[in-house]
Amino acid sequence: ASDTTPDVSAHNYYETDTGTLTITDFDNGTHGQHIYVISKGAITYDVTSTNLKGGSTNIVTADGDMTCWIYIGGSWYLTNFMDVSANLTGGH
Which of 1, 38, 39, 40 lies at 20 to 30 Å from 83 by C-alpha? Predict the structure, then answer.
């Protein structure tokens, strides 16, 4: 629940804790690995000063939001962020 760098070596699908947490990295990724993370609380992804690459502003998710990442060259790149509270009928 308080791990800011969770181990992702066992699976490709993860759910966060229900509390508030800032994730700064994912441990033990393998080149080309995709992971899917469902937020169960207020989770911030620090993409401004870590190995998480996802733009110029940290990403804050809420319960039910999903992020998708791929591991390449020592960094995790955000490939998708779905905000379940947004109207997605027009795509995103």
Answer: 1
pLDDT tens column, 5-31:
999 999 999 999 999 999 999 999 999
How many angstroms separate the CA atoms of 11 and 91, rounded? 28
> No. of H helices and E strands in the chain?
0, 8
The set of residues, in sequence order, having a beta carbon less than 8 Å from that of 59 and lying 6+ positions away, is 44, 45, 47, 67, 78, 81
> Is 0.90 topped by the overall pTM?
yes
Number of residues that this document lists for the chain: 92
Residues facing 14 on adjacent strands: 37
Give the amino acid at 27. D
Which residues of the chain have a pLDDT value below 70?
A: 1, 92
**Whose structure tokens read 């033990």?**
28
